[in-house]
Design a protein that fits this description.
elongated, alpha+beta
């Protein structure tokens, strides 16, 4: 994805954020499903992708590292 947008990269590139690229890739795959995707954040941390049930309670979550 990064190469398609910005050209070839190497593992020594200081500006390369693999975590952000991985999170975007996972999100884009889940986005094509029939689920609503959410992000959770509070003062002690965050969860990248959260699925809620009909009562707006967490049903599943994904933390991309």
């Amino acid at each position: 994805m990064c190469c398609a947008l910005f050209g070839p990269v190497s593992d020594s590139d200081e500006d390369l954020d693999i975590g952000a690229l991985a999170e975007t890739a996972v999100f884009s795959q889940l986005f094509h499903g029939d689920r609503e995707l959410h992000y959770a954040r509070w003062s002690g941390g965050e969860v990248d992708i959260v699925g809620l049930d009909s009562r707006q309670r967490p049903e599943w979550c994904v933390e991309v590292k």
